Amino acid sequence: MDPRRIAIVRLSAIGDVVHGLPLAGSLRRLFPAAKITWIVQSGPAPLLEGHPFVDDLMIYPRRDGPARILRFLWAVRSRRFDLAIDLQGNLKSGLVLLNTRAPRRVGLARQDYRERLGALAAREHADPAAGPHAVDRTLALCRKLGETDATAEYGLAPTERETHTARADLSEVADPAVAISVGAASDIREWTDDGYIALARSLRGKGAGVVVLSGPDHADRCARVGDGAGVPSRAGTTDLRGLMAHLAVIRERGGALVACDSAPVHLAVALKLPVLTLSGPQDPRRTGPYEFPNNALTAWEGLPCAPCLKRTCALTGEPAACMKRIEPAEATRRALALLQK
Q1: CA angle centred on 120, ends 116 and 124, rounded to 5°
Q2: What does DSSP say about strands 275-278 and 296-297: parallel, antiparallel, or unpaired?
Q3: pLDDT of res. 228
Q4: DSSP bridge partners of 296
Q5: 275-311: pLDDT as tens digits
Q6: Is residue 54 scored above 70 in pLDDT?
Q7: Over the Cα atoms of the chain, what is R_g?
Q8: 88's torsion region: left (phi>0), alpha (psi -120 to 50) or beta?
Q9: Bridging pattern class, strands 83-86 and 5-9
Q10: Residue 280: its pLDDT value, please?
Q11: For the chain: N or C, fewer Cβ within 10 A?
């Protein structure tokens, strides 16, 4: 009998939720009459609101204390799910999966669990993924559930109102436009202010429109880079869906995105916006733009520690060398090549 109530457990983060969307699409095609609930934290939740593959959300109370979490898990148990899938692969997601009480509980391949004890909550596991990327692991779950020809389909699109707002906000940016997304300066995966400013100036000098984007937490840095390069910046004025709409408008105007390993990269891929990833410590085959690993710029030569997955740099003589060695001239050349395509 086909399941009537399905739970997807992928609590965070934004990019990883994007990577998991092809699973929701597979479930919608395999079980069109089922109600699909996504269990997620509040940060990525806006991407799933009104999504064509998802019927309902349950918001995991990340910072509300043990009592609230226990009440949440009781609410999960009360849903009486028939099928539940763990897309995350750690102890927390395993605990949620277990509390779905679904008779069929499916998890990632055992070797893909970050915390191996979490695998005990699943009764079935996917076969090993065909590739190293998170989307490959998602597609392995799709095949486990019965869709043998699963593809990376994300179903993301802004509303007409969101698109209209983004078009108005970007009206002063010339075409073809390159959006440069900046994050926290303290993040080991982030480029330098000087690098971003030099890139923006160079692109502007070669006739491209340029806009600097960021989330509200990095508004000061976004403005600093925009002012330093003499280009517009947009930060802190849009939510996550607003960011998605801005990227979609850049795409419809024939533009591209330049960003470090971050959520905007994966949103761009889902929206079919060409993206150049400035990939420092990470291996772009694992965390870069899915199906486009060559759209990543690395500067690993001579560094024995790269690639790595560390959150703090282990190099003492030249900290964050893999990011600092990325040359603005090469980033400019690669970004312009995306516009020409």
Answers
A1: 110
A2: parallel
A3: 98
A4: 277
A5: 999 998 889 999 999 988 889 999 988 888 888 888 8
A6: yes
A7: 21
A8: alpha
A9: parallel
A10: 86
A11: N
The tens digit of pLDDT for each residue in 194-217 reads 999 999 999 999 999 999 999 888
Position 50, amino acid: G
80 pLDDT above the threshold of 80: yes
Distances (CA, A) of 37 to 45, 49, 325: 12, 11, 44
Strands 256-260 and 233-235: unpaired
Identify the bridge partners of residue 209 per DSSP, sorted by sequence position.
177
β-pairing verdict for 256-260 and 275-278: parallel
Q: What are the pLDDT digits (tens) for 144-193?
A: 999 999 999 999 999 999 999 999 999 999 999 999 999 999 999 999 99
DSSP-based three-state secondary structure for 14: helix
Mean pLDDT on 120-147: 97
CA atoms within 13 A on the CB side of 339: 23
Query: Residue 272's closest CA among 259, 290, 288?
Result: 290
CATH homologous superfamily of domain 160-340? Answer: Glycogen Phosphorylase B; (3.40.50.2000)
CB distance 171 to 249 below 8 Å: no
* DSSP code at position 62: T
Q: Tell me which fold the domain 5-145 belongs to.
A: Rossmann fold (3.40.50)
Alpha-carbon distance 177 to 254, whole Å?
7
- List the 209-214 sheet strands across, edge first: 233-235, 209-214, 177-181, 256-260, 275-278, 296-297
CATH 3.40.50.2000, the chain: domain bounds = 5-145, 160-340
